[in-house]
Design goal:
The complex is a heterodimer of chains A (302) and B (509). Chain A contains twelve helices and two strands. Chain A is mostly helical and 302 residues long. Chain A has one domain: ABC transporter involved in vitamin B12 uptake, BtuC, CATH 1.10.3470. In chain A, strands 1-2 form a two-stranded antiparallel sheet. In chain A, α1 runs antiparallel to α9, α1 packs antiparallel against α11 and α6 packs across α7. The termini of chain A are far apart. Chain B is an alpha/beta fold. In chain B, the strands form four sheets. In chain B, strands 13, 16, 17, 18, 19, 20 and 21 form a seven-stranded mixed sheet that branches. Chain B has a six-stranded mixed sheet with strand order 6-7-8-3-9-10, with helices on both faces. The model of chain B has no long low-confidence stretch (mean pLDDT 86). Classes of the chains: A mainly alpha (302), B alpha/beta (509). Chains A and B meet through α7 and α8 of A and α4 of B.
């Protein structure tokens, strides 16, 4: 049972990290559909750097940097050149899928070192929950920290309120003297960093080999999760755990020998995504939590 | 004596001019505002009020002239500098963030460092002190328009202003809210804060201001004490000619006419997060009647207009025109029956802004140009076919164009509105449903539009007028009802409902 909970938690970390980043990006009014692509960049950068330097912590760093770099391409196009955000985000993912395939080619068949588990003394000895919560690698702790950091930041810090303000009404934000474009660049880069780290987590903790497109749709699930969570960080954790659980279901089914076609089980997380979005849209239609300026260009010369 | 007078002056504007390209928006304007004075600035749209005020608040840089504060020359380069000189401004279109709370809205516009908790206490204190009660933890989208204005005022008050500029502050308020606002303004003035009050409502200016400066075509026409000038002569100075009085025609001649349109228990869900749900709306309008629907903005007017026009559909029997159930039919079908609609938003809703007037006319009337009304014929239609119609709309309605056949958004608000109303009249409607017809339109154009509506009613047509402007509602409607939070009050005869009653129906005491 403990092992099952740990596996669910670990499986949900990439979605959680990428989702948190995208949440901040979207709060500032930018819809970046390139999460899947940014995660792939993070994954290949992390794997490559670990193979070269041998240290998994370097992998986190390179994953984050790769995520930021690729997100600045997106920012340049959508915020500065004002291209369509949806098209640019899709383009980014397609581009990154091919690019990471090319970069990852030499890594095929090699195994990278994984992130070490850091046990927190005393706490990890608590029966039942100790092992699940307090005997994890650094990115798990970081992701949990990030949830509360973002939640607190949006509620109580000026920069957090400014990000929300820019996503809510960019013309007013401009008229009281804030640089809408700068705030959006920073928020999008933060989203890129988180997606890069989420992608890095896959080779660093889950499957230590490179395979093309190894994020397998986790970026898309993260995007859906942000909507599912109504742009609230704490709900995002719940959503990520549910999706982690559904993903694990297929392994449980195999282990227990349930008579369900494996294709069906593979399909489950994506099916759940569609279902969640459909359900949520009934509620959202008239009670919309989405940032009012989400996906809209800021022209700036009004 | 002169020294004494100077000491009482807070701000003095000397020969201020501002040109945009070739256009002289402010022409050598001089103005003096004393400490603790409520000074009204009166003028039509385009008279240069906004430009002058923007110069004072540092949004626009004057081309020429001086500004003196407490006798010292100053240059104001941006709003932050204006605030540091003690000038605060409440904009007509609020610069608030709907999804943020009151305190968050204020926090991000303050230059000083302060925690949210501390600020929330401060907001409550200031609110109590000045009679501006507000819940600092509420989200702005849950506030009424009047409360939103309080947020803007508190935001200014937190910076201890010496001069508060208010741009058309009452245009969105109910009569009771206006009284409340005036109390606050008088209290502020008594405490020594000067107020520059921009308005085109003459009665209000008489009521609240001690001095009035009238602008026309960028020039100061008159600057005098409000006790020495009548509203009629203010109006004449403002528009530069005598005001035509329009007269309502035989009040109840419609009483025996048949019902044109009846609305029965109409419900609609809200369109967006900031929308209003319509609840059980019912009313009848007879031929020859003008029904005025009053209400503070954002109480369901847009939703009602959309439901009436067919932009949102419902059950068939929610709307009955003559004896046809049309609640589920689209806008095109309703127009083919003889209904016409003039929505609130001129640019982008009533017209396509970046195509010409002829092309806009074509979009409205293309059905009438098509011979057989089949798809193939429609493809071959050309927008030139509407050029005569377009010209006659322009001539019949005195639409002033900068050049022949301009793009829709090249017209001023008043002229575009005259064009839109004229276009609807050209369709010879049996029922005209019109929303905020004179919002932001200057007095001359507004009175022309209202006379056209009266003429239409006289010709036996039914009119539903949705308007925030109570004077307008009183001026031309036979019956009045009030929309408040998506519910509509029972129509009452105009002479039997007072402004106070309307205020109560608006839900604010």
């Amino acid at each position: 049972m403990e092992n099952l909970l740990i596996t669910i938690l670990l499986t949900s970390i990439p979605i959680l990290l990428a989702g948190l980043g995208e949440l901040v990006t979207e709060k500032s009014g930018v819809l970046n559909l390139g999460v899947e692509g940014m995660m792939l960049c993070g994954a290949v950068a992390a794997l490559g750097s670990v193979l070269i330097f041998g240290n998994p912590y370097i992998g986190i760093l390179f994953g984050a940097i790769a995520g930021i770099l690729i997100s600045t391409v997106f920012s340049f196009f959508t915020i500065t050149l004002m291209t369509n955000q949806v098209a640019t985000g899709l383009g980014l993912t397609i581009f990154a899928t091919a690019l990471t395939g090319l970069i990852g080619e030499p890594f095929v068949g090699k195994t990278a070192a994984s992130l070490p588990k850091l046990e927190i003394i005393f706490l990890s000895d608590i029966p039942y929950i100790g092992k699940v919560l307090f005997s994890n690698d650094i990115l798990v702790y970081f992701a949990i920290f990030l949830i509360f950091f973002i939640h607190f930041g949006f509620q109580n810090t000026k920069i957090g309120i400014i990000i929300r303000a820019v996503g809510d009404n960019h013309d007013s934000a401009h008229s009281i003297g804030y640089s809408v474009k700068l705030v959006r660049w920073i928020s999008t880069s933060f989203g890129g960093m988180c997606a890069g780290m989420g992608g890095a987590y896959i080779p660093l903790a889950l499957t230590p080999h490179w395979s093309e497109g190894m994020t397998a749709g986790k970026g898309w699930i993260a995007l859906a999760l942000v909507v599912f969570a109504s742009w609230m960080p704490i709900r995002l954790l719940i959503g990520a755990l549910i999706f982690g659980g559904i993903t694990i279901l297929q392994f449980v089914a195999q282990a227990r020998g349930w008579d369900v076609p494996s294709q069906f089980l593979n399909m489950l997380p994506y099916l759940a995504t569609i279902l969640a979005l459909a359900l949520i849209s009934f509620r959202l239609r008239h009670n919309n939590y989405a940032p009012a300026c989400l996906g809209k260009h800021f022209l700036g010369n009004k | 004596m002169t020294n004494n007078l100077n000491a009482m002056t807070f701000i003095e504007v000397k020969n201020l001019s501002k040109t945009f390209d070739q256009f002289l928006a402010n022409d050598s304007i001089s103005l003096t505002i004393k400490k603790g004075e409520i000074h009204a600035l009166l003028g039509e749209n385009g008279a240069g009020k906004s430009t002058l005020v923007k110069c004072l608040y540092g949004v626009v840089k004057p081309t020429d002239g001086q500004i003196l504060i407490n006798g010292n020359h100053v240059t104001i380069n941006n709003p932050r500098e204006a605030r540091s000189h003690g000038i605060g401004m409440v904009f007509q279109h609020f610069s608030l963030f709907p999804a943020l709370t009151v305190s968050e809205n204020i926090l991000i516009s303050l230059d000083e460092k302060i925690t949210k908790k501390h600020l929330e206490d401060k907001i409550s204190i200031i609110g109590k002190q000045w009679g501006l009660p507000i819940e600092p933890t509420k989200k702005v989208l849950d506030l009424s328009v009047g409360e939103q204005q309080r947020v803007e005022i508190i935001r200014c008050l937190l910076q201890n202003p010496k001069l508060l500029i208010m741009d058309e502050p009452t245009s969105v308020l109910s009569p009771q809210e206006i009284n409340q606002l005036f109390k606050v303004l008088r209290k502020l003035a008594n405490s020594g804060c000067s107020i520059l009050y921009i308005s085109h409502k003459l009665n209000e200016i008489k009521q609240i201001a001690s001095k009035v400066t009238i602008l026309r075509s960028g020039k100061v026409i008159s600057s005098t004490s409000t006790s020495k000038i009548s509203t009629t002569s203010m109006a004449e100075k403002m528009i530069g000619k005598k005001v035509k009085k329009i007269t309502k025609i035989s009040k109840n001649s419609f009483l025996n006419s048949p019902t044109a349109i009846s609305i029965n228990n109409l419900n609609r869900k809200k369109l967006s997060q900031f929308g209003t749900e319509l609840k059980k709306i019912s009313f009848n309008v007879k031929y020859g009647e003008i029904l005025g629907i009053a209400g503070v903005a954002g109480n369901g007017q847009v939703e009602l207009m959309n439901a009436l026009s067919g932009e949102t559909l419902g059950e068939p029997d929610e709307i009955i025109f003559e004896d046809k159930k049309i609640g589920n039919t689209n806008i095109k079908f309703r127009r083919s029956l003889g209904l016409e609609f003039v929505p609130e938003e001129r640019n982008g809703h009533a017209t396509v802004p970046d195509i010409t007037l002829t092309e806009n006319t074509f979009l409205t009337f293309y059905n009438t140009y098509s011979k057989n009304n089949n798809f193939l014929d429609d493809i071959l239609l050309s927008s030139n076919m509407s050029s005569n119609d377009s010209k006659s709309i322009i001539n019949d309605n005195d639409v002033r164009c900068p050049y022949s056949n301009p793009l829709a958004d090249q017209l001023s608000g008043g002229n575009l509105q005259k064009f839109i109303v004229g276009r609807s009249l050209k369709a010879n409607p049996k029922v005209l449903i019109i929303s905020q017809p004179t919002w932001g339109v200057d007095i001359g154009a507004a009175s022309e539009i209202r006379s056209k509506l009266l003429l239409l009613a006289k010709a036996g047509k039914a009119i539903i007028l949705i308007s925030q402007d109570l004077d307008e509602i009183y001026e031309i409607s036979n019956n009045i009802c009030v929309i408040n939070n998506g519910s509509l009050s029972k129509p009452k005869i105009t002479s039997k409902i007072s402004a106070k009653d309307i205020g109560i129906l608006m839900g604010i005491n």
